[in-house]
Amino acid sequence: MFDRILLPTDGSDPTESAVTMALGLAETHDATLHVLFVVDPPTSVTGVGDGFSGLDNLLDALEEEGHSTTDEIATQASERDIETTAAVRRGNPHDDILSYADEADVDVIVMGTHGRTGVKRALLGSVTEDVVRHSAIPVLTVHRDPDE
To answer: Which CATH class is domain 4-142?
Structure first.
């Protein structure tokens, strides 16, 4: 049923439940697991132009975090004999997730939710919600452990 599974991650604790679910699905369906980390550059920084070394250093650090996060998940997958492809991109998270899903011809996207509600959700938005609303393929949302 699922040959290619996409797991977008930001490396945060609430996504651990999604990692567990994606690994289980990939193992059950003998599927390839695609792990994606998207670095979201700021759209504008007051007084800062392109090539600002502080911003470049920040983005480079976030990319390093992305590689570390995707490598860690790939290691977990390897221990379970799950074929894995890892990618780190810079861009708009929900757009890049949907683009990657299309490019890799994935069958399902497995995403964690942060469980924000009310004002926090309105102010911070939701990448998962945007992906669910615009995806042409199924999106399995996994809530973090309610005890956390």
So the answer is: alpha beta
pLDDT tens-digit map of 22-80: 999 999 999 999 999 999 887 655 445 555 567 778 888 999 999 999 999 999 999 99
Token code pair at residue 118: 């009310």
What are the residue ranges spanned by the domains of the chain? 4-142
- The C-alpha angle 51, 55, 61, rounded to 5 degrees, equals 120
pTM for this prediction: 0.86
**39, 89 Cβ separation under 8 angstroms:** yes
Cα dist from 8 to 24, 54, 82, 117, 118, whole Å:
15, 26, 17, 21, 24
How are strands ordered across the β-sheet holding 32-39?
A: 84-90, 32-39, 4-8, 108-113, 139-143
